[in-house]
Amino acid sequence: MRKELFLPVLLGTNRNGRNSENVARWVLKKIEERDDIETQFFDARDFKLLEDDYGQTIKDLFPEYRDAITRADGLVIVAPEYNHSFPGQLKSILDLLLKEYTHKAVGLVGVSAGPWGGTRVIESLVPVVRELGLVVTHADLNFSIVQNTFNEDGTMKEEFVGPFDERVNKFLEELVWIARALRYGRENS
């Protein structure tokens, strides 16, 4: 039995000029710093989705994502808030699979240009990921006024490092706990 958890990160927007990419890369870096998690990065821009067929065989068009989620113990979704909800591209990507998500943890990271830190995108995503069989963590990670949080090179501004390090540690600790409990359940029941 492998000790490390496998928790891929999915950046759920393909929009140009997206500030959520800085968030996703920062979260990915924080995950990679841990020795108890293995990860893989998926970007919505890399999914060339069909316009006319979302039957059961579409997942075979994205074997890397399908195989990663099949192997995964959970998932981290980084999603910007667009008009009080999530990007349509993210919904299309999530809908590629179903049984592969069942009884796995999901941590939600909300991103917003406004003061609410993507809380509404997280509220919108919770029923969707639950329907897919994912188990949502209690702790979310929220980025308010994201355009002021990162430097032009994508690094986090110094004044935000301490507070966000504390938040991401709590977020990941809960995600790891739930992912381990669910892996135990999948392997032993």
Structural topology:
Elements: E1 5-6, E2 9-11, H1 20-32, E3 37-38, E4 41-43, H2 63-71, E5 74-80, H3 88-94, E6 104-111, H4 119-131, E7 134-136, E8 141-143, H5 158-188
Parallel strand pairs: 1-3, 2-4, 2-5, 5-6, 6-7, 6-8
Tell me the series of helices and strands, N- to C-terminal.
Answer: EEHEEHEHEHEEH
Mean pLDDT figure: 94
CATH architecture: 3-Layer(aba) Sandwich
Question: What is the H level of CATH, i.e. the homologous superfamily?
Answer: Flavodoxin domain
- Class based on secondary structure composition and strand pairing: alpha/beta
Total strands: 8
What CATH calls the topology is Rossmann fold
Assign a percent range to the helix content.
25-40%
Q: How large, in whole angstroms, is the Cα Rg?
A: 16 Å
Question: How far is the first residue's CA from the last residue's CA?
Answer: 15 Å
Question: Uncertain regions: pLDDT < 50 for 5+ in a row?
Answer: none
Number of domains: 1
Shape: globular
What is the CATH class name? Alpha Beta
Proportion of residues in β-strands: 15-25%
The helix count comes to 5
Largest sheet: 6 strands, parallel
